[in-house]
Amino acid sequence: MLSTAAHPTGVDCHDSAKRVRVIDTDMHPDLPALAEWIEFLPSEWRDRVLHLGTGIPGPPWQNPHGVTRRDAFESDGTPTAADPERTRVAHLEAFGIDCGILVPTPGLATSAMTHPELSSALCTGMNAYFKSAWLAGRSCYRGSILVSTRDLEAAVKEIERWAGDPAFVQVAIGSGQPMLMGERYFHPLYAACARHKLPLALHPGQEGGGITPPPSVGYQNRYIGWHTCLALGYQAHLTSIILEGVFEKFPDFRLSLLEGGVSWLAPWMWRIDKNWKALRQEVPWLRQAPSAYLKDHVRLSTQPIEEPPNAAHLRQLFAMFDAEHLLMFSSDYPHWDGDTPDFALRGFPENFQRRVLQMNAEEWYGLA
Amino acid sequence: MALPNAVETPTRVLVGSADSFVAGKPQMITVGRREIGVYRIGDAFRAILNFCPHEGIKICNGRVGGTFVAQEAGEFWRAHEGEVLACPWHGWEFNLLTGVSLHDPRCRLKSFSTEVHEGMVYVVI
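The joint structure predicted for all components is written out below.
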């Protein structure tokens, strides 16, 4: 049940002592028409982009309903999420959300482009645009520094450009990547994130588009198949990152896994830890069981939260790992599979809700 | 979706003239705290609560169209044209004629009876 006045079950939003400060760790502002943000692109790329477009690829699957919710468009057809004030009213105010962390979707797919320099320039332009149009003067939003992994030297420069700006709380890339993310190719990116104490967010949606492979073996024939298997790509990336020793090499590196599902985590932990006990000699640099790295280095966002027929089963699954400290609420506004704060955490104890809706994100992103 | 001036009686609420309905577009009325969308499907009228049983979304903002059905894998038969309402958020499909979802017969929209008298459409509450 949607509510515009009350916060999730058992929490009184009018009582300051009890009030939960809801942080939405994954929302997607849209770019406006190109003419409105082209000035933020590095000047040498403007003519090309004006004439040819950005060239950012999408995945080769179509959602039959459209990815953006049908009720998230204005009467003139423009997306509500292209305007920060309209978004604040339609999403933050409507669902009692105090702070939204912006993860602009077009920037996530730049790592799937063939053109390294253009992909980096687009990230530079988008970061400058969202800083100017959304973040400046608005405490209800925080930003993600978009980078392309096609050119890591440029990505590191982009991180250096914004790292001191408190409006940006993490670096973000798509989880659609040309190779597994534990590879040493990516390590300069992890070093920069660690140096600036910025988590790196992975977000799905590009897998199978441009130069990136699909999230599992082969190309699914349908959007439903592709979307279902996005969690498999996350398992592969997380496995690779841990086994390649990224968290040992960069002790301050932290990873936000957005929109990749959460219920797979416990059986994945059991499987990798069991294997490690027997095969430890393959990864002798790991100084603890693989799953033990999650506590200090990894957080997962809740949406799209799984919906078992018996809701108690979700609570049982969440008791099988430290969900109370590893999960952060996310809505995915304005996309088709979004969750609301009250729906996502219905039936969970108040302390759990407070951790997942507020405290975990506050601690992770330094928002307390 | 403008709200027509509803004239309430103890059991029937006037929605508007049958001729004023546009296929696929609900006429909305408010009765107490309930928002109700009334659809015309051919010669039939259906009234539903503006509330998706999944997450409580205002389902009348959703698109009305058809869907695909199949007897065997690989078939795509277009069916129920103009009868299927899809939730604007998560895409759950409901047959407006029956109120029943296409994925689970136990999942239904809250429906109200309709009556037509002398060309005027009423919802019975």
